[in-house]
Design a protein that fits this description.
173 residues, Rna Polymerase Sigma Factor, Chain: A, Arc Repressor Mutant, subunit A, globular
Length: 173
């Protein structure tokens, strides 16, 4: 997936409404599924996760002047989505229903089938790190920062998950 350019980040602060809307749409279209995934993973509720996506991007818009790099923007979106989701979960935990639908997390139906199968083999953390790294392109340092872990902890858990998948599917090491 293409990087968000510095120019796009600067256009978020433009005096031109058209430029600002274009920049916002570029960022929204690139990160909406990632924000949804983070939120859905916590809330297990599609509608609540969609609300968190909207809230997260509203907060991004309110803080749009503080993003000098795509990495800072991505980190802001993930931390905001995670915190909003946890807060929402704590408020609604007695009212939430579980839904295991991951259809909106990716655009490719084939990937969804594999992801569902991976859930059967991997523990929750291994699955999360695999999806963030392979599907959304996060490096281990970014995943570690998001989860308040060390890079080596994330790398180790990820490698363990890959080994489990290889063993399960009979792949070579």
């Amino acid at each position: 997936m293409e990087k968000v350019s510095y120019h796009t980040l600067r256009c978020l602060c433009s005096t031109s409404e058209e430029e600002m809307n274009q920049a916002f749409n570029i960022i929204f279209n690139k990160y909406r599924y990632l924000v949804y995934y983070v939120s859905f993973d916590i809330l297990k509720n599609e509608e609540e996760a969609k609300d968190i996506v909207n809230e997260t991007f509203m907060k991004m818009y309110e803080n749009r002047r503080s993003f000098m790099s795509e990495t800072k923007l991505k980190y802001f979106l993930l931390v905001t989505a995670k915190n909003l989701s946890i807060n929402r979960y704590n408020k609604l935990k007695d009212h939430l229903t579980y839904s295991d639908d991951i259809g909106e997390k990716t655009d490719d139906e084939g990937v969804n089938i594999y992801l569902e199968k991976f859930k059967e083999v991997l523990d929750e953390e291994e699955y999360e790190y695999l999806v963030l790294h392979l599907i959304y392109g996060f490096n281990f340092r970014e995943i570690a920062n998001l989860n308040k872990l060390t890079t080596s902890q994330v790398s180790s858990k990820y490698q363990r998950g890959i080994k489990k998948l290889r063993d399960f599917y009979g792949g070579s090491h």
